[in-house]
Structure to design on (359 residues):
């Protein structure tokens, strides 16, 4: 590990006044819509939720619940999985198509692990065995309300930051590291599959830099670049970030542009020094197959390689809307296959020694 004595991180001890309120909206209670063709089970669950302080209303058919959703968007839906007209999974998908922010909890007596995984990948908030324990059901609903409130809050924060950056384009030099760190965190929260992504990349990049015995200043530059590597994604539409299907060529080009957009955002911040180059190069590959410039070999900075392999490693371990994350053993095997093609042996070996285990 590198000696940090005498060096102060630009991320340490920063406080900033802002006119944006960073408090969560209230999420202690609200209305829950329920679907269950078993009236006795529905009435029991309704009573459990009302005892926990929620307003609960149940429907015996999925179609009736969907009509209610169209008329007045709820925050949380609790649905049985097995129903005559459609499954709870189909109901949840239909509700999310009407309003993607709805939190859906599915109750099932089957305990089907495959169905549970499919439900969670689709965006369902929780999957509970039926009949649910009273405390488990109440806690699942509480988590759903708080998750909904947190996501709404972070979306508003990102929107505010975008407007603020546009309004203050001439004064962007004043944007501090604390604001950009908050932005990186808010961007991660655009999708449940990216929660904590930037911080995980930052921690992994710093660990690799220390394993390579870089200086404290170099370690901190790599740490900062890891935290801000996807800042250019603020220019990418939410629909592309969250798209579960394969991207078209044009859509992929828009995604690729985030490296250049990141440089444009950070360029006025001269004090970042090599950090901006590392961010620009984090998708470049030794064999020239990367972007945005198709650099090869030594054209790519060591910092760019470190941030690049850190982002790749975290992405390998993370789940996405269209796939599950790999195990570490599977991920290390994959890195071994691309060693010397995407990243140097030196950097790959350093990752093997310094895997932070943050995912």
């Amino acid at each position: 590990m590198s000696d940090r004595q005498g060096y102060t991180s630009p991320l340490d001890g920063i406080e900033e006044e802002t006119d944006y309120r960073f408090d969560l909206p209230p999420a202690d209670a609200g209305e829950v819509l329920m679907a269950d063709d078993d009236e006795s089970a529905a009435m029991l669950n309704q009573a459990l939720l009302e005892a926990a302080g929620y307003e609960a209303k149940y429907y015996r058919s999925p179609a009736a619940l969907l009509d209610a959703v169209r008329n007045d968007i709820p925050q949380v839906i609790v649905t049985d999985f097995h129903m005559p007209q459609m499954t709870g999974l189909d109901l949840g998908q239909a509700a999310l198509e009407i309003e993607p922010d709805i939190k859906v909890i599915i109750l099932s007596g089957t305990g089907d692990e495959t169905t549970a995984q499919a439900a969670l990948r689709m965006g369902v908030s929780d999957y509970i065995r039926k009949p649910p324990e009273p405390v488990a059901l109440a806690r699942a609903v509480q988590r759903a309300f708080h998750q909904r409130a947190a996501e709404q809050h972070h979306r508003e924060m990102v929107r505010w930051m975008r407007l603020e950056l546009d309004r203050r384009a001439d004064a962007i030099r004043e944007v501090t590291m604390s604001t950009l760190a908050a932005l990186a965190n808010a961007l991660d929260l655009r999708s449940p599959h990216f929660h904590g992504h930037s911080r995980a990349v930052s921690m992994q990049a710093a660990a690799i830099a220390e394993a390579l015995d870089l200086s404290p200043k170099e370690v901190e530059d790599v740490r900062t670049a890891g935290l801000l590597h996807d800042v250019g994604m603020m220019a990418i539409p939410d629909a592309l970030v969250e798209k579960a299907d394969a991207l078209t060529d044009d859509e992929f080009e828009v995604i690729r542009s985030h490296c250049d957009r990141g440089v444009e955002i950070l360029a006025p911040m001269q004090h970042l020094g090599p950090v901006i180059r590392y961010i620009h190069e984090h998708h470049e590959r030794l064999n020239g197959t990367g972007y945005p410039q198709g650099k090869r070999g030594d054209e790519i900075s060591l910092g760019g390689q470190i941030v690049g392999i850190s982002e790749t490693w975290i992405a390998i371990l993370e789940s996405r809307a269209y796939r599950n994350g790999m195990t570490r053993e599977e991920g290390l095997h994959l890195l071994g296959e691309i060693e010397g093609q995407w990243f140097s042996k030196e950097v790959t070996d350093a990752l093997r020694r310094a895997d932070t285990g943050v995912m």
